[in-house]
Amino acid sequence: MKETGVKNVISKVYADSIAEEVGIEVGDILLSINEEAIEDIIEYKFYLSDEYLEVEIQKPDGEVWVIEIDKDYDEDLGLEFENPIIDQAKSCKNKCMFCFIDQLPENMRESLYFKDDDSRLSFLHGNYITLTNMKEEDINKIIQYRISPINISVHTTNGELRKKMLNNKHAGNILDILNRLADNGIDMNCQIVLCRDINDQEELDGTIEDLQKLNHAIGSVAVVPVGLSRYREGLYPLKPFDKETALATVKQVKDWQNKLDKSLGRNFVYLSDEFYLLANEALPSYESYNGFPQLENGVGMVVKFKQEFYDGLEKVQAISLENPKKVIVITGELIYATIHQLCNDLMSKIENLVIEVVPIKNDFFGGQVSVTGLVTATDILKNLRGKDLGEKILIPQSMMRAEEEVFLDDITIDEMEQQLNVKVQVCEVEGSTFIDRILE
Questions:
Q1: pLDDT > 60? residue 114
Q2: Domain check: are 132 and 267 in the same one?
Q3: Whole-number Å distance between alpha carbons of 431 and 397
Q4: Which residues of 208-243 are buried (b: 16+ CB within 10 A; e: fewer)?
Q5: Minimal CA–CA distance to 196: which of 242, 162, 154?
Q6: How far is CA 173 from the centre of its chain?
Q7: How many domains are there within the chain?
Q8: 3-state secondary structure of 147
Q9: Among 300, 316, 322, 394, which residue has the fewest nearby CB atoms (within 10 Å)?
Q10: Quick one: pLDDT at residue 438?
Q11: Which residue has the higher pLDDT, 135 or 17?
Q12: Residue scoring higher pLDDT (351 or 368)
């Protein structure tokens, strides 16, 4: 067995799991599986798929156990680790002209400034990677351990332009790597962060043309507008999309969708909701999103939410509340009109229900940022102090740090409740659940 310097400390053992049955406990250290040292989560999942395992565990007192396990193929042991990927996350060495982390103000939580570019996080959590911060052995590992699907930040297939956009002289071979991954059966999703007058228009056509040739391996391509905060001093001068340029992009991608739907049977390339809202254009149909493969990228979220909302609204009986009920709903500026209409439709069925939708202007990051997910507690508090806040405030989950009830500016839900002296409830971004949270 090869030596490992990584201590894979177990943080959770699921009830009724194989691990619990064989005596593995929180605080134990996983040393190896079938005499292979486990250096990261991908190796763990790869070796875990075998039906017969010899699992080497070190107990807190230093005693080493070797446990023989017979199980079904791909059956999990039921473990979680203190470090979810076991190894250290790989940081990004690019200096992308559009990087939002470079546009963050000072004195925010330290973890917000970490730029990851790790294929393991892409596989586990859907993070996007550029493939520029990888050695040959890393590419081989993706192929060997079948790390699939992975999400790739392409931005452009023009090699020279990609070097410029990522400020990395090694970034130009993206098509070679994509072809290599595709040839080895690795499934991919791609994203293009669109920068006005940089990689849009003819450059966007060229990128879509190149990517669609790999449609057997690339499931979807998301096109999202560059996010620009007010903290851009010394950074590359980028222009925000306006109504006219957003409308031109919508038309351009719609033409590609019409063409690709005929040849591939799916749209393949999808625009983020922000483009449609900025252009004041009607959103596509629910069916046109082909199962919403890029939902986490803000692609189709509004359409899906509305469908869920009206499905839920059909089940709501028209009633009159015995006591008046007021709820505050917080949202970003861009989606305000949509949320306001939904709330009006709900109020039309429930007499004595008052829903006040409050759009929050993003002063924290700057006026060019209008999406809901980047609204901070600082701006919410500034807007709500001194108002009649009714029974409670609903905050969408998208404003929270991942799996935490903490805003991007490090203010917690509890702290907001204390400052406003009213219940603050986080609501999942799901339409029927939104109705439930308002009415409960």
A1: no
A2: yes
A3: 12
A4: bebbbebbebbbbbbbbbbbbbebeeebbebebbee
A5: 242
A6: 26
A7: 3
A8: coil
A9: 322
A10: 97
A11: 17
A12: 351
Angle between helices 243-264 and 202-212 in degrees, nearest 10: 20
**Buried b / exposed e across 57-80, counting CB within 10 Å, b at 16+?**
bbeeeeeeeeeebeeeeeeebbbe
The pLDDT value recorded for residue 4 is 42
Check whether residue 140 and residue 267 sit in a common domain: yes
Look-up of token digits 């007499």: 351
- The residue range of the domain holding 285 is 101-298
Q: Would you say 304 and 338 are in contact if contact means Cβ atoms under 8 Å apart?
A: no
How many residues are there in the chain?
A: 440
**CATH number for the domain including 18?**
2.30.42.10
Among 287, 254, 265, CA closest to 219: 265
* Whether residue 222 is found in the same domain as residue 365: no
pLDDT at 223 over 50: yes
* pLDDT tens-digit readout, 227-244: 888 888 888 999 999 999
Distance (Å, whole) CA 436 – CA 233: 44
Answer yes or no: is 237 within a domain. Answer: yes
Biggest alpha carbon–alpha carbon distance for the chain: 71
CA–CA distance from 112 to each of 229, 298, 369, 375 (Å)? 15, 20, 17, 15
Q: Which of 107-111, 182-186, 384-388, 424-428 is the least confident region?
A: 107-111
Cβ(146)–Cβ(103) below 8 Å: no
Q: Percent of the chain scored above 90 by pLDDT?
A: 66
Mean pLDDT is lowest, of 93-97, 281-285, 412-416, for: 93-97
Same domain, 290 and 186: yes
Convert the pLDDT of each residue in 377-390 to its tens digit: 999 999 999 899 99
124/217 same-domain check:
yes
- 112 confidence band (pLDDT: 50, 70, 90): low
Residue, of 134 and 353, whose pLDDT is higher? 353
Query: The domain spanning residue 419 has which CATH number?
Result: 3.40.50
Instruction: Give the contacts of 374 (CB within 8 A, at least 6 positions apart).
Output: 227, 332, 362, 365, 408
